[in-house]
Amino acid sequence: MQSVSPWLTKTARIVSAVGHPLFVTSLFTLAVAFDQLTTLNALLVSGLLLGGVIGPVTWQNYQRTKRGLYTNFDVSDRQQRYRFYPILIALLGLVTTLLFVTQQPRPFCIGFLSVLLLVVCSYGINFFCKVSLHTSISFFMVWALRLISLPLGVGMGILALLIAASRLVLSRHSLTELVVGALLGLLAGAGFYGYIR
Length: 197
Prior knowledge:
The protein is an all-alpha fold. The chain has a domain at 1-30 and 128-197. The chain has 8 helices and no strands. The protein has helices spanning 6-18, 21-36, 39-66, 81-101, 106-125, 133-148, 150-169, 175-196. Helix 2 (21-36) packs antiparallel against helix 3 (39-66), helix 2 (21-36) packs parallel to helix 6 (133-148) and helix 3 runs antiparallel to helix 4. It is globular. The chain starts with 5 loop residues before the first helix and ends with a helix.
């Protein structure tokens, strides 16, 4: 088997970092919230996401990687994900509930609920196969961006394919894990798109 060229590995690392679920969801939510909501609502939605999910998960992954409890920040080991998923689900569940309770706009509530269901399904599937969250979230974003415009959706589709390829090049996932992630993301995204549209 041929080794992967250093250039391809470096490119894959960059694409994988850009496509990290924590980064992609933050960027998308901030952009859409400040574009479509009042400043107060945008601050509330963004604050809940960043302070209630992104910040704690980033800190946890960093600390557990530093202490050797996780092999890497992405939690690429299937056994280690058994500790990762319950915390992510609890945080996402809390933030989603708060969005509904504070009566935020329906697309944001349903969007967070869709991602929560995607993560819960990923946790269940993890008992058999390690789903690529990079891939599932990026393919979910294809549908979310399609709600805004067709070119954005197509662009995200191309990026989603590149993100999936980067995970394969970096040997973080098998082809099966990527396909399962893509299908899960597409199904969750299509459900979100259909409901909101």
